[in-house]
TrEMBL record:
Positions contributing to Zn(2+) binding: 83, 88, 165, 170
Keywords: Kinase, Metal-binding, Transferase, Zinc
Segment forming the signal sequence: none
Gene (UniProt): Mob1a
Designated name of the protein: MOB1A kinase
């Protein structure tokens, strides 16, 4: 069982959900992350997500995937006390979308579970992929595997579901915590990134379609 220990109130402690995945300082990926942060600061997100000249696409996607994992981790960490077995008995994104968990290895047949349980499975699974040196090599010159793009797409598709759940089920808490601007900026960056490289199927984005169109229209 991978759930973190319960605090006396019966909810998991509100500290950050999973350990942050650090990109080693001094590495090329660290330089890329710094580049991403610098271009983000310019405020033009469409430009910020573009592949920097002369860079390897896989590496750019790897660095950003780690960054989005950390961002979502932190955002979800702020609302874990509101996302409980009783408040969210199913993993949903509004009344029309419900997610069942399967990772293809340990759990092959999708299981219905509560949102906190689902997100715990999901984030643990992503962490395992990111920590796998054969999938996400951190050393310079170590090639990315042939299936890297399909793994990255699956990770991003699943991370999207955490955004979708937060927006649909916990947005009032986000507003109360004054995290709204932070969440919107993070999600907008995420969406522009997956659109730039066509990483998530349009059908998968349906639960937040209106929001995606609204965020995109402000930047035309």
């Amino acid at each position: 069982d991978v759930l973190s220990p319960l605090s006396p109130s019966g909810s998991r402690s509100s500290k950050t959900f999973k350990p942050k995945k650090n990109i080693p300082e001094g590495s090329h990926q660290y330089e890329l992350l710094k580049h991403a942060e610098a271009t983000l600061g310019s405020g033009n997100l469409r430009q910020a997500v573009m592949l920097p000249e002369g860079e390897d696409l896989n590496e750019w996607i790897a660095v950003n995937t780690v960054d989005f994992f950390n961002q979502i981790n932190m955002l979800y960490g702020t609302i874990t006390e509101f996302c409980t077995e009783s408040s969210c008995p199913v993993m949903s994104a509004g009344p029309r979308y419900e997610y069942h968990w399967a990772d293809g290895t340990n759990i092959k047949k999708p299981i219905k579970c509560s949102a906190p349980k689902y997100i715990d499975y999901l984030m643990t699974w992503v962490q395992d992929q990111l920590d796998d040196e054969t999938l996400f090599p951190s050393k310079i010159g170590v090639p990315f595997p042939k299936n890297f793009m399909s793994v990255a797409k699956t990770i991003l598709k699943r991370l999207f579901r955490v955004y979708a759940h937060i927006y649909h089920q916990h947005f009032d808490s986000v507003i109360r915590l004054q995290e709204e601007a932070h969440l919107n900026t993070s999600f907008k960056h995420f969406i522009f990134f997956v659109q730039e490289f066509n990483l998530i199927d349009r059908r998968e984005l349906a639960p937040l379609q209106e929001l995606i169109e609204k965020l995109g229209s402000k930047d035309r």
